[in-house]
Amino acid sequence: SDLCRILSFSLSSVCVPSSLSTDDNMGDNHTFLYFAYGSNLLKERLQLKNPSATVHCVARLKDYKLVFGNHKGLASDRWHGGVATIEHSPGDEVWGVVWRMNVSDLESLDSQENVTLGAYSPVELLVKTKGQDLNCRTYIMNSCVYAPPSPQYLKVIVMGAEQNGLPKDYQEKLRAIKTNMYEGPLPMMAELERARRRAKEKVNHRSNDA
């Protein structure tokens, strides 16, 4: 549809497995790799409930595209607009961040993605990095009804893309996404700003101690 084309564009994305694949490549059965393509691109967002998350690398998912919408058309109370998901699209690609996470954070990650409510399903997809291909966990929305994101939600995605050095042309595509122009309060944004301030204070404290 025209709306779908407006809301979608090429990005590299990650998928989540229905049965968790631990990070056998690193000989570690206590961690897994998660590919984020939406708000979890931003470290402070992901670490709110998943403190073990550390950046592994930037990666690209081939033959998928980024779209925005809501599960069965039910608008997000958290973000007041469409939220990110991915769908198969030959020739497209999604860029994202591969995070290494402890298995102990899996339950909270699933909860954030509303897996038990059926909003998202975990899948496993192969993403490409400079040196190798990686099997990563990610999430795909079920029964997606397309809807534009709020400006605040898009801002979080853009900040995450900048923070992790995603390709410049990809960042420009993100900035060009049309939003729903929502201007009301968003408690999640205030929470993220506090988290970012705390992180900055820690960095400054360490540099002063050095």
Describe this structure in words.
It comes from Haplochromis burtoni (Burton's mouthbrooder). The active site is at residue 113. InterPro entries: G-Glutamylcylcotransferase, GGCT-like, GGCT-like_sf. Substrate binds at residues 34-39, 153. Keywords: Lyase. This protein has 210 residues and is of the alpha+beta class. It has a single domain (2-184), classed as Gamma-glutamyl cyclotransferase-like (Hypothetical upf0131 protein ytfp), CATH 3.10.490.10. Helix content is 29%, strand content 32%. It has 6 helices and 7 strands, in the order αββαββαβββααα. The protein has helices spanning 2-7, 43-46, 106-112, 151-163, 168-175, 187-209; strands at residues 9-10, 31-36, 54-71, 83-102, 120-128, 133-141, 144-146. The strands form 2 sheets. Strands 1, 2, 3, 4 and 7 form a 5-stranded antiparallel beta sheet that branches. Strand 5 and strand 6 form a beta hairpin. Helix 4 (151-163) runs antiparallel to helix 5. It is globular. Mean pLDDT is 88; it is low at 1-19.
Entry keywords:
210 residues, alpha+beta, Hypothetical upf0131 protein ytfp, five-stranded antiparallel β-sheet, two-stranded antiparallel sheet, 29% helix
Task: Please sum up the structure shown.
By secondary structure, the chain is α+β, with helices and mostly antiparallel strands. The chain is built from six helices and seven strands.
